[in-house]
Design goal:
The chain has one domain. The chain contains one helix and nine strands; from the N terminus they run E-E-E-E-E-E-E-E-E-H. A hairpin with a 5-residue loop joins strand 1 and strand 2.
Length: 89
């Protein structure tokens, strides 16, 4: 589904589903704050398969899949398992 971008007066950018207040973006972070913080959402749920779903400007990162938080190592294992299952189907 196509998102619309909204930029506020502070330079923060938000990608949202049309006619909703739901964050959504499939090709990058759905929220980019002017200070450098980035947040990935799919259908208003924290989610990123190829890296951390939250990257703060200070270097702190958090990994999420479908709204569930994982450690970096757990995230890597989960993604590896998912890819193996896809290959075996």
């Amino acid at each position: 589904m196509k998102s619309s971008i909204v930029t506020d007066n502070d330079g923060n950018k938000f990608w949202m589903l049309p006619n909703t207040s739901m964050f959504h973006r499939e090709d990058g972070p759905a929220v980019e704050y002017a200070n450098g913080d980035k947040y990935w959402f799919i259908n208003d749920v924290r989610h990123r398969e190829d890296g951390p779903a939250i990257e703060n400007f200070n270097g702190v990162k958090w990994w999420y899949l479908n709204g569930k938080e994982y450690t970096e190592q757990e995230h890597k294992f989960k993604m590896r398992d998912r890819k193996l299952k896809e290959l075996l189907q």
